[in-house]
Amino acid sequence: MTTRPPDPEDLAERLLRARLTRRQLLAGALGVAGAAAAGRFALGQSPPPVDTTKVPGFPATEVGARTPFEQPFRIQVGQHSWFAPIDRTYGIITPSDLHYVVSHAGTADVAPSAYKLLIHGMVGNSKAFTLADLRRFPSVSLTYSIECSGNSANAWFPPVPTDTAQNVHGLTSTSEWTGVPLSLLLREAGADRNAEWLLAESQDAAVFAKSIPAYKAWDDVLVAYGQNGEALRPEQGYPARLIVPGWEGSVNIKWLRRLEVTDRPFMGREESASYTDVLPNGTSLQFTFEMGAKSVITWPSGGYRVPAAGFWELTGLAWSGRGRVARVEVTTDGGSTWADARLQAPVLPKAHTRFRYPWTWDGKPAVLMSRVTDDSGAVQPIIDDLVKERGLHSIYHNNAVQAWSVEADGSVLSTHDPFRTALAAPGGDREALVRGFPGCLA
Amino acid sequence: MTTRPPDPEDLAERLLRARLTRRQLLAGALGVAGAAAAGRFALGQSPPPVDTTKVPGFPATEVGARTPFEQPFRIQVGQHSWFAPIDRTYGIITPSDLHYVVSHAGTADVAPSAYKLLIHGMVGNSKAFTLADLRRFPSVSLTYSIECSGNSANAWFPPVPTDTAQNVHGLTSTSEWTGVPLSLLLREAGADRNAEWLLAESQDAAVFAKSIPAYKAWDDVLVAYGQNGEALRPEQGYPARLIVPGWEGSVNIKWLRRLEVTDRPFMGREESASYTDVLPNGTSLQFTFEMGAKSVITWPSGGYRVPAAGFWELTGLAWSGRGRVARVEVTTDGGSTWADARLQAPVLPKAHTRFRYPWTWDGKPAVLMSRVTDDSGAVQPIIDDLVKERGLHSIYHNNAVQAWSVEADGSVLSTHDPFRTALAAPGGDREALVRGFPGCLA
Question: ipTM, 2 decimals?
Fold first, then answer.
């Protein structure tokens, strides 16, 4: 959030104070910058103002460190899900060390020298590509967002006032990905153009695997080995992963070891027991890959406080798995009136687009919401629309409009959109409800 | 370099081995991933291949760490200059902790609570903006490259064969910068539109200061507080700096504390004794702010080895302070024939643009060069053109075509362009020569 002022009640600062010990260790290990400033934090207070023109600066290092004054971090929710601080980022890029993480058996520790990607099945000649092979192919670098289909699942249920943008909506991140178009590798292996499916398999301890329609594989899928100017981070699938633009995170297979070209879906656990959408009639929707049009106001958002009445710039992120963001509307009066937000260039397909909206707060309670329309014409729904369509038990792919209430004292709480009638009962044990859905957030 | 294969002779790997102790400390502090892999490195050999599907992965952490298999780092050249690994990055973004660093008195350790930006001089009402104030203004996020005017200064002199892309051309980096348009702050302070200059001053121990023409300040200059999705890193001027798109790094004042609106340049040390271009007649060019059209092949480049004859994708970076890259030509036969390289989207103004060129190496010695043309029509010169124009002593703003020679065994050496007649004598003590130019690389 580019406009958040320092604030004693500030969520990030409260969380930071709660984690000083870890911060100090880290900072201490990350060079003089960190060590110096961590020393301050050790005193548990701000330093006396120093005239920096009168003291020599500290030397640079081979690898730089963050200032201890700005230490965003991921928050763990559930066993294997780490939520990105989407309320504490700037622009659209997510720093690689803060990218959200969802894994099913932890982070696989793959040695690049031992890495191979096998392409087999309905192919002319099976191929096993080493990392060196992959890096020899003509490559592209493209900026895409990834979102877990379980992102915002908690918001499917009546919101808890203390919900924050990070711990409810933080399972989405944006990177510049560098890699090889998968179509190139499929051609290299002589893949059968009549084969309608691909099985993509990870080499993590879950041997996590998903079926992907061939038409997508031949379209814009990448086998990526670079992320934001460097090699993939281990948690994002080092040494190589799939990037399936606009589709749910689970098919963007990390630690990719095998692609089987086939004429039918694999029907594995992760596409039968999990990652399916239970309908009112008891059947389930399968292979709902595409992520819907969605937006979240990141400042002000749950846990922050608007310091005073007056002018503030609201900001947030909008995206769609279908294409580009065409329009974002914002309301500050609970939906009575909506106005267009400013979209920040570049507006990239299947990637976060930052929006901004000038707001003069009169100091009275207010309800803030945003609503995105993508270039396919799809409009972000309210929760009732989703419930009408999918019933009560379909918590994946929750792209519903999200509401924040600003109290008279400026504190910001999570609240349901004022139109909400479905699932409007008090929160209850959402963790238990969520655990009831296999694979969700796992 | 997106296409470099693992290679026993590889520069990065040799440098990494030379720094294992530091890597281990770092990795050890950076979580299980690092620790585990650093343990391997401690053995000074690769691990026995592990079946990662049979062992649980390691847990994610609040802040992720790089794999110890991929540890790019900056190289210090001279007292205050750290060169970015431009030969070991992907796409166009430079990871924030690897952004090049040039400082004049180390990194100022500024506490955000104590930060103020003063705008005064020919203004209606002087203003002192806190960091909170700056963050309240409407903000933008734009991707620009910064280059030190001393970048490639070593290449002005006859090249030393062991020169690398990093330690000669690494004083340039690219980030997504988030901040406030300076024009907004100038309006807020009621700056006099007739004032022709601005003095921009740092609060580092050098109180580094430069004069900037007002027309540029009112055009596209930013006061930036965000870098690649997070707060500025201390070495890049935390909490706020100037971004002066396309102009030499030294005017992109870091740790910015004061902007004085004035009717004449300041004529300070850094624009009289330093950062001037000495001409043959003994006079000097001042205020040569704009960086020229420039390109560098980053793979293969000095210190690497082309493993074998056959197909390889050459890659490199091209940019211009004047605007967008319009065309990049590559020669692999020492300039006899040139062919267009592929430009990778997005092609952003005043930012690195990655280019790629398919090359089939016949295994014989070859000389590789690239030449950029920007959208103003400016073509990257050869060194002789620069010498004709500026004489022998003008080592700033060296945007001359750079040549790499590929030997029969595949090893890549730095060499002068085959057209070079000026300064063609053997290298000599370039460090001494460089030290002879005040401020250069400092």
Answer: 0.86
